[in-house]
Amino acid sequence: MKLLLIEDNPTMQTTLQRSFQRRGFQVVVCGEGGRALDRWAASVPDVVLLDLSLPDVDGLDVLAQARQRGYTTPVLILTARSTVGDRVLGLNTGADDYLAKPFDLDELEARVQALARRAGKAMAPAPEFCGLRVDAASGAIYHLGQPMDLSPREAALLRGLLAQPGQAVARERLFELVFPGDASAQAEAIEVVVYRLRKRLAGTGAQLVTLRGLGYLLKG
């Protein structure tokens, strides 16, 4: 399932992105209201998580414009505005659900799943590739039913590759998954994680292939 997270707070971005990725979600992050509709159209999300207090365009304006354009993706508002009037305004503008900050991550995921079910896009069981499978609930990776001993970064890299087995995944996209919000990480650091993951995959039948100028792919 793909989420579009429209949130400008870096800490909240990182927390939600890591939490949902561990649970098997794909997360696209946008921190500016002015770019949100373009990211919405480009990513084709199953559910949108929308903060109202964006720095340039108010979240309700983003939501209103999205509905005017015919975007029907379920929207869950995340905001510190918690009065009844704010909730009513958000729902009348086109939101499908509303959760006030601070919130519990398990409750947030349950609400996301509920919205997806209503839209007919509940998360299906993850397919296997060379015996590798990502557990949707925990984000843990199994090989032939046995949990793999992976570091968090190795697991993040493998989840990104398993989302598109047999297809090239851009180096930049994998870097975002492996080092989310880490401004100190150098671009070359992804190569170290790739090297380590190759060793972990030995004997699984899956190969991590480097495509120069494109990225990496997982093939059987």
Give a description of the structure.
- This protein has 220 residues and is of the alpha/beta class.
- Helix content is 41%, strand content 20%.
- The protein has 8 helices and 11 strands.
- The strands form 3 sheets. The chain has a 5-stranded parallel sheet with strand order 2-1-3-4-5, sandwiched between helices.
- The mean pLDDT is 86.
Characteristic key phrases:
single chain; 220 residues; alpha/beta; five-stranded parallel beta sheet; three-stranded antiparallel beta sheet; 8 helices; WH-like_DNA-bd_sf; transcription regulation; DNA-binding; CheY-like_superfamily; Response regulator transcription factor
Compact overview of the structure:
By secondary structure, this protein is of the alpha/beta class. It has eight helices and eleven strands.
Task: Give a topology summary.
Blueprint: E1 2-6, H1 10-22, E2 26-30, H2 33-43, E3 47-51, H3 59-68, E4 75-79, H4 84-93, E5 97-100, H5 105-118, E6 132-134, E7 141-143, E8 146-147, H6 152-162, E9 169-170, H7 171-178, H8 189-201, E10 207-211, E11 215-219
Parallel strand pairs: 1-2, 1-3, 3-4, 4-5
Antiparallel strand pairs: 6-7, 7-8, 9-11, 10-11
Helix pairs in contact: 2-3, 6-7, 6-8
Number of strands: 11
Percent strand: 15-25%
Mean pLDDT: 86
Annotation field: number of helices: 8
With strands numbered from the N-terminus, the spatial order across the biggest sheet is 2-1-3-4-5
The portion of residues assigned to helices is: 40-55%
Order of helices and strands: EHEHEHEHEHEEEHEHHEE
Helix vs. strand class: alpha/beta
Major β-sheet annotation: 5 strands, parallel
Q: Low-confidence runs (pLDDT<50, min 5 residues)?
A: none
If you compute it from the alpha carbons, what radius of gyration comes out, rounded to the nearest whole angstrom? 18 Å
Pfam families: Response_reg, Trans_reg_C
Organism: Aquincola tertiaricarbonis
Protein name: Response regulator transcription factor
Domain Response regulatory: 2-116
